[in-house]
Amino acid sequence: MWDDLWTGAHLATMAAGEAPYGAIEDAALAVQDGRIAWLGPAAALTDAPERLAGRRHDAAGAWITPGLIDCHTHLVYGGDRTREFELRLTGASYEEIARAGGGIRYTVEQTRAASEEELYADALPRLRDLLAEGVTTIEIKSGYGLTLEDELKMLRVARRLGADEPVTVKTTYLGAHAIPPEFDRRPEDYIDTVVAAMPEVAASGLADAVDAFCERIAFYPEQIARVFEAAGAVGLPVKLHADQLSDSKGASLVARFAGLSADHLEYTCEEGITALARKGSVAVLLPGAFYFLRETRLPPIEALRKAGVPIALATDCNPGSSPVTSILLMLNMGCTLFRLTPEETLAGITRNGARALGLQETHGTLEPGKVADFVLWDIKHPAELAYRIGHNPCRQVVKDGKVVRG
Ligand code: DI6
Ligand code: FE
Questions:
Q1: 100 falls in which pLDDT band (50, 70, 90)?
Q2: Per residue in 65-94, pLDDT tens?
Q3: How high is the pLDDT of residue 260?
Q4: Under CATH, what is the fold of the domain 2-65+366-405?
Q5: In angstroms, what is the span from residue 324 Cα to ligand 1's centroid?
Q6: Which of 6, 97, 222, 311 has its CA 20 to 30 A from that of 115?
Q7: Is 246 left (phi over 0), alpha (psi -120 to 50) or beta?
Q8: Which residues line ligand 1 (CB under 6 A)?
Q9: What is the 292 CA–ligand 2 centroid distance (Å)?
Q10: What are the extents of the domains in the chain?
Q11: For ligand 1, atom 10, which residue shows the shortest CA distance?
Q12: Is the pTM for the entire model greater than 0.90?
């Protein structure tokens, strides 16, 4: 006998295959020990629901999708950058502000000054915004501490959020995010410290992956290669902020290290795309940052599609370039700004989002054996999730087989 059975549902399984959205209409879904035990057309159930499961739930025509996955965020940080937003509106560019010592460096100051408690209290409402929209897995980066101690402080906050809230948190050490003020004009020396910190970061158990910012206002590929080698030596997978503001050869660098994902990619060239495809790395597109920075160069969507690179979407929630805590808005922006299809955007925050975090065996689709993370939506068709703006049709969230919302 199953623990739980949902009937009266339509499933957007998002499993790769023939049917759009992997859809199964008039379906049922069973859960046992926190995993999906069975799913299929309700007509294929072998007995009456009450003889099949301890608890029955009537989905009353809801669509069920996999739990949503936000695979790229900087959710934990101190302060905000409202002032910088105002400056940009009077003409200063994101890059100019960064070069003048504002931007990421300002958030570093604020984050260093904040206690773990304060960082937690600031991040929690941002996380809850995302959870209210059906997010069940989130990646959270460090990168605003830039000393080993402050980076670990951020990662501890991220882990605590995952322990306290009904969400799986994957953490990422982003030591090579910016050159901290005390290493001004000495990027190589700073990279030495990031490399030297790697064994301790790994031993702390606080990081699941390593990220870096490859850009002319941050670090060069050769510098990041040293960080990635150090990550590989301690068994941590890598990913990269790649080609966001210029073609920095970031995508090729990710491929060289068989990274989980290359993120942003507005300026990625053909060669980078081919390299990603060869290694099976995911392209993570971040429409919130594209929108908020009023970027005009589109990521190479058609080339990514043609090459068969899996495309994920994420909020990039951060104070400087994407103060976004709505994953549903990313679906809409993925369609309106990037011309992705609604199905592609939904795959981007389910199946491909899971893959970007190395969770493709356990998360990201509705399939027997996978973790029972899913969301019930008051919608008539899955495309509606990408279509509307400012409306949240999330009715119920199930995490590890337990109803945690609704
Ligand atoms: N690119 C981004 O989108 C975030 N980090 C990065 O390297 C933005 C960081 C910030 O402006 O605070
Ligand atoms: Fe980012």
A1: confident
A2: 999 999 999 999 999 999 999 999 999 999
A3: 98
A4: Urease, subunit C; domain 1 (2.30.40)
A5: 12
A6: 97
A7: beta
A8: 74, 103-104, 107, 177, 213, 241, 244, 289, 316, 318-322
A9: 13
A10: 2-65+366-405, 68-356
A11: 320
A12: yes
